[in-house]
Write a structure and sequence with these properties.
- The chain starts with 9 loop residues before the first helix and ends in a 13-residue tail after the last helix.
- The protein is globular and about 45 Å long.
- It has a two-stranded antiparallel ribbon.
- The chain is mainly alpha-helical.
Length: about 110
């Protein structure tokens, strides 16, 4: 896929697309799935939070990130990001392979 600067930089665009695809995630997961350095993801998330585009909350030791539902045009932004993510089938397949629920007690990896 050709990286675009739709939202300022290719990394910022990819982070936003991943947040839309994952709905609720954390910076380390974004970095791992998006193949972006963690420090860059943390900086991008902090800037997006300052701008009101994403909302974060701390749960235990994790800082959960999601699109801010109070952001003006949040539904339109989410729709655009999901359409944009369809341009990158590899990104969608990486998200689809993620295990999003806990394992049952006693099961091996």
């Amino acid at each position: 896929m050709v990286e675009t600067r739709l939202f300022g930089s290719p990394a910022r665009t990819r982070v936003l697309a991943l947040i839309a695809l994952l709905e609720q995630t954390y910076p380390r997961e974004i970095a791992r799935v998006g193949d972006i350095p963690l420090v860059s993801v943390q900086r991008i998330v902090a800037n997006l939070e300052r701008d009101g585009v994403v909302a974060t909350r701390v749960i235990g030791a994790n800082r959960m990130v999601s699109l801010n539902p109070r952001f003006y045009g949040a539904a339109d932004l989410r729709s655009l990001l999901l359409k944009y993510a369809k341009r990158d089938p590899e990104l969608e397949s990486r998200v689809a392979r993620l295990r999003r629920r806990p394992r049952q007690a006693g099961n091996d990896l």
